Amino acid sequence: MKKIFVNEVGPRDGLQNIDIILNVDERFQLIQSLEKAGINSLEVGSFVSPKAVPAMDNTDTLLEKLVNSKSDYSVLIPNTYGYKQAKDNKVKEVCLVLCATESMNKENINKSIDETILEFKEIIDMAKKDKIRTKIYISVAFECPYEGIVSSEYVYDLTKEFLSYGINEVVIADTIGAGKPDQVKKLFRRLVKDFGSSDFSAHFHDTRLLALSNVKAAMGEGITKFDSCIAGLGGCPFAPGASGNLATEDLVSMLHKEGYETGINEEMLRNSAKLAAQLTN
Ligand code: MG
Questions:
Q1: How far is the CA of 125 from the centre of ligand 1 (A)?
Q2: Digits of tens for pLDDT over the chain (281 positions)?
Q3: Residue 124 alpha carbon to ligand 1 centre in Å
Q4: Are 251 and 212 in contact (CB under 8 A)?
Q5: Can you list the domains of the chain with their CATH numbers?
Q6: Which of 212, 248, 247 is nearest to 232 (CA)?
Q7: Cβ atoms within 10 A of the Cβ of 118, count?
Q8: Which one, out of 54, 102, 134, 184, has a CA that is 20 to 30 A from the CA of 198?
């Protein structure tokens, strides 16, 4: 049976994009519940300014509580300072986010794309020496709320550039859920043809109910790693209309029905979804 890897982003992407703020114990409880369901790859927090993203404050304390777990944890960082915090907290994988349009990148981290690439290259170099895994999200990879349709040629070029820097994984992210299966297919077909499929994953949103169709389109091109978010929490605070991360329970259910293996128990996953709903009202 073919295996598909599910990377759970609820504890970061989900929780930072809702109104309610969970405390560290509640965040820990949610992560433990997800692990019990069989999820062993999770984005658990970020080292960003707590003023900008209060929900992710105390990610260091959360990581201390997770120190004995065998799961793979990643943490989002926006810059070199965040990288240092991640390193000090013994994080094994850091996530970088680059938006594929100037307007969205400015909105997200207040920098131009060129400035961001320069800083990220430095981070990748440091991470290689420190033996920390790096992953980059190419955000708004299909459509941007400010600039419209994004050129797949440009997303291809950005991906190629980061692979040449030695990034470990590139996540093609449809941040506002506007990507269509034929666009997904076209982009991944080209990327996989030139670079193989193992360094890629995809992050889809269900805003227009196309997330699962987009997953299938990517799987058709050989992609085997996908992000999802328990109970479909969150969207993106800076992207108008970006509600609805693909729900982990929907993704897992579809994969099992189609005969794929995930290592995740659906019934226990439903308990995690209930817990997520309870904790976040
Ligand atoms: Mg998302």
A1: 26
A2: 799 999 999 999 999 988 899 999 999 999 999 999 999 999 999 999 999 999 999 999 999 999 999 999 999 999 999 999 999 999 999 999 999 999 999 999 999 999 999 999 999 999 999 999 999 999 999 999 999 999 999 999 999 999 999 999 999 999 989 999 999 999 999 999 999 999 999 999 988 889 999 999 999 999 999 999 999 998 555 555 556 899 999 999 999 999 999 999 999 999 999 999 999 98
A3: 22
A4: yes
A5: 5-279 (3.20.20.70)
A6: 247
A7: 11
A8: 102
Element (H, E) at 121: helix 113-130
**Exposed/middle/buried for residue 257 (C-beta within 10 Å: 0-12, 13-18, 19+):** exposed
pLDDT at 53: 92
Q: Measuring CA to CA, which residue among 110, 17, 230 is closest to residue 97?
A: 110
pLDDT value for 42 = 98
User: Could you give the dihedral angle defined by the CA atoms of residues 143, 148, 151 and 157, in that order, rounded to the nearest 10 degrees?
Assistant: -70
- pTM score, two decimals? 0.95
Find the catalytic residue in 99, 144, 229, 236: 236
Q: How far is the CA of 203 from the centre of ligand 1 (A)?
A: 7
CA–CA separation, 227 vs 213, rounded Å? Answer: 14
Distance 97 CA to ligand 1 centre (A): 11
Q: How many degrees, rounded to 5, is the angle at CA 199 between CA 124 and CA 40?
A: 90
Q: Given CA atoms 229, 241, 180, 173 in this order, what sign does their dihedral have? A: negative
Distance 257 CA to ligand 1 centre (A): 24
Active-site residue flag, 99: no
Question: Residue 96 is encoded by which pair of tokens?
Answer: 């970088």
SS3 category, 4: coil
Task: Determine the Cα–Cα distance for residues 195 and 176; give it in Å rounded to an integer.
Answer: 26
